[in-house]
Amino acid sequence: MLKNKKLFLTRIKQQLGEKILSFTIRQPNETEIVVKKDQLAEVCRFLCQEKEGRLFTMVGSDEREFAGSFVLYYVFSFDETQQFITVKTMTPEEDSTFPSLAAEFPALNWYEREVKDLLGLRPQGHPDLRPLILHGDWPEEIHPLRKEFDVSQNAPRVKSRESFMQYEGDEVTEIPVGPIHAGIIEPGHFRFGAVGDTVLYLDARLFFTHRGLEKASEGMPLSKALFLAERICGVCALSHAVSFAQAVEAAAAVEIPLRAKYLRTLFLELERLYNHIGDVGNICAGFGFAVGVSQGTILREELLMLNERIAGHRYLRGIVDLGGVRFDIAHPDYADILSTLNKIEIGFTELVDILLSHDIAVDRMSKTGILTLKQANDLEVVGVAARASGRNIDIRRDQPYAAYDKVSFTVPVYTEGDVLARIRVRIDEVFQSISIIRQIFIQMPTGDVSVGLPPISPYARGMGWVESSKGETVHWLMTGPNETVERYRVRSATYSNWPAVALAVPGNIVPDFPLINKSFELCYACCDR
Asked: What pTM does this model have?
């Protein structure tokens, strides 16, 4: 593998030649390529199209104080060689534009619009420059992620620049839903264009819950920022905490103890379990299958109570520490976990048998909300939604972290791309998670559960990632002076997947929307930060 990596990187360096300013191996698995702005599109195109890299995340950063300009980072994952390549380009304040790649690579649409909103860098040639994070009544000249922005100031409101799809003809009905919903859920505005019951188009407007967590983290001690990361999302608390901790550990060039890796893996799979089982029940609610809803809720509650018994928190907060985990588990906990999983496995198998043998339930999910493989690839969809559409990616296997390289598991992949495929992926992954946890208890090594971190230099960078129940979650970090946060960028799985929902809905009937939406099971706050 090491030889293949070296050969892979050598060839890229040779093929790009004079197009790059520098080529640096920053971490064993991350290489940085610095390019001028006018070469950005060509280099990214080469990495994606010729070398088959996939967009992992994009980060805009205000580095004028110490680097003299704004900086853009495009991170690509090469799963076959387990490598990341970061393309870095500078954007000086006097020319705050950069070439847009969104028309060629639709997954960059949101990233580029976010950079425009929060940093004031304008993507030239972008096909849709409507506001994204900051809604239309936010002044265009105020950019919250610039260093000079005062978080205590109240931005004045202006005339809204919001726009939606315009329809011609009397046969099209516009149906607005939200942002305030009948249930106690997060806010999102969905505007349907429909002929009769059939949806022609869906405008989805999100980012009503933007809390400015990335801005709030600036200057925060790394240990305190861990608690911020843990509160990005309620049901992905552990995934975000592990991602952030891994980013800090990468910046510090620290490897955590092996036992800590196994414990992180254990708790991550417990988080996946309660989410997947709960999601199966929630999907049943989308078509009124009350038995499935009830049984999913009962099993999820069993797992949440288990979490509280062994970790002190139903949603697994307070477990992760920078350098490992905060506490060990004892043999009585092993017995509790294994006996609970045996019970869950029996109950979930019964639920699956009832659900998949029910003709009406299967018919309701089959061929509903189809997301094609091309759409999933174009938007860089991740997680359950990706694997249900034939996209064979799972960061646990492709870029292993924690102890995932020590355990054996299968990644379920379906090709139908419909609601039924998405629920089948979750079902298969539940049984895989139970298997992983059993392997962990057989293999669990002795030893320490944490290690101290050495001093971390200012402007060191690190990246952490986790395959949460919803898909890849990526935390990108640059440290500041005195081991603080200089720049912190969170790309959750839901950020990658929300644009796909709007593509899966057209052609279905309006009453299918709750079912389709639930089958993606995306979080608003997790997306918005």
From this structure: 0.95
